[in-house]
Amino acid sequence: MSEADQKLWTEVDAFFDEALIGTDAVLEATLAATEAAGMPMIAVSRSQGRLLALLCQAAGARRVLELGTLGGYSTIWMARTLPPGGKVVTIEAMPTHAEVARRNIAAAGMTERVDIRLGAGLTVLPLLAAEKGDPFDFAFIDADKANIPAYFDWAVRLSRPGSLIVVDNVTRGGAVIDAASGVADVEGVRALRNALATDQRVSATVVQTVGSKGYDGFILARVV
């Protein structure tokens, strides 16, 4: 990826975002607060946020599961789509991140629609299962990639037939095709890919992307 490529991809994103999404003071303030808190600026792009919102709506989502809250940017995008009584249950391992997200979500007026669970994903997910709540209609997995095979398995188990699951950041800059990578995040994606090859519970595909976030991609799966 050259600097010229990145410049072009960013400009094309901006071209479409201006017409199709526009500006949003609340979401921009969320990003600003996240940056001011010294957190990594790795939230989804505007166009990806809108995609998550559209997928939630397409799934008729009332309950959404998110792994990786960060500053709450993607959380707010999804929470806004929910009907009265709907809920995003979002899991964040870092207390400081969860606190920033809590403030951002409150500023967006979404507190009643968001339930932040603090803790490691593989600790919190079994607790969610034990609660025996309604199944999730949509799941967004945007946490550490080393554990995504387990995260994905839990997302399926906590979902219903017809639910959609998105796993973000799966290309690893192309490193995912390197069988000798040895990098935990790459190995996690490769393990998920191999598991999906024989997982009869879902139908899945991958979409590679370029844009303001560079070269990336996501897995989209539907629980069958």
Beta strand %: 15-25%
* Percent of residues in helices: 40-55%
Give the termini separation.
37 Å
What structural class is derived from the secondary structure elements?
A: alpha/beta
State the CATH class: Alpha Beta
Q: Mind telling me the CATH superfamily name?
A: Vaccinia Virus protein VP39
- Summed over residues and divided by their number, the pLDDT gives a mean of 97
Whole-angstrom Rg: 17 Å
Number of strands: 7
Question: What is the CATH topology classification name?
Answer: Rossmann fold
Annotated CATH architecture: 3-Layer(aba) Sandwich
Largest sheet: 7 strands, mixed
Write the element-wise H/E pattern from the N-terminal end onward.
HHHEHEHEHEHEHEE
Q: Low-confidence stretches at least 5 residues in length (pLDDT < 50)? A: none
Outline = globular
Counted up, domains total: 1
Number of helical elements: 8
Oligomer: single chain
Arrangement of strands in the largest sheet = 3-2-1-4-5-7-6
Question: What can you see in these coordinates?
Answer:
This protein is of the alpha/beta class. It has one domain (about 5-224): Vaccinia Virus protein VP39 (Rossmann fold), CATH 3.40.50. Helices cover about 45% and strands about 25% of the residues. The chain is built from 8 helices and 7 strands; from the N terminus they run αααβαβαβαβαβαββ. Strands 3-2-1-4-5-7-6 form a 7-stranded mixed β-sheet, sandwiched between helices. Helix 7 (about 150-155) links the parallel strand 4 and strand 5. Helix 2 (about 25-35) packs antiparallel against helix 5, helix 3 (about 45-60) packs parallel to helix 4 and helix 6 (about 120-130) runs parallel beside helix 7. The longest helix has 18 residues, at about 5-20. It is globular. It starts with a helix and ends with a strand. The model has no long low-confidence stretch (mean pLDDT about 95).
